[in-house]
Design a protein that fits this description.
The chain is of the alpha+beta class and 111 residues long. The protein contains two helices and five strands, in the order H-E-E-E-H-E-E. Bound molecules: adenosine monophosphate.
């Protein structure tokens, strides 16, 4: 098992978990880009959003991201990002949603 997020889900490497259930784990990004920067990942290994076909899991990932945003009190606004494959700069090849908020995030521009 060479996937860092699989190891993290298994508890083999430490993380600051903010939520977990039977399908999904959410934990703080180790290099936060905003006051709130949480990653929501499936327990099962999927390389990216490209590989996601399970609608139940897709719904759960989205609803957990929204729940994390509410728990973090991001009522001023927040952003959900899924870097997918090379052109988007995906670095960790285990599907993850970034929940970002707690400051003005600026306009989202390509590049
Ligand atoms: P991406 O570029 O979308 O693949 O983002 C990968 C994210 O994983 C980056 O924001 C990293 O800071 C984060 N990351 C990498 N290793 C860890 C770790 N052990 N615990 C928490 N976040 C991590």
């Amino acid at each position: 098992m060479d996937c860092i997020f699989c190891k993290l889900v298994a508890g083999a490497i430490p993380s600051k978990r903010v939520f977990e259930d039977d399908l999904v784990v959410a934990f703080r990004d180790v290099w936060p880009l905003a006051p709130t920067h949480v990653l929501v990942v499936p327990r099962a290994h999927l390389a990216s959003l490209w590989e996601l076909e399970d609608e139940r899991l897709a719904g759960r990932l989205l609803s957990v991201a929204a729940r994390v945003a509410r728990d973090e009190k991001l009522e001023q606004g927040w952003r959900l990002i899924a870097n997918t494959r090379d052109d988007a700069g995906q670095e960790v090849l285990h599907l993850h949603l970034h929940v970002l908020g707690g400051r003005k995030l600026g306009r989202m521009l390509p590049g």
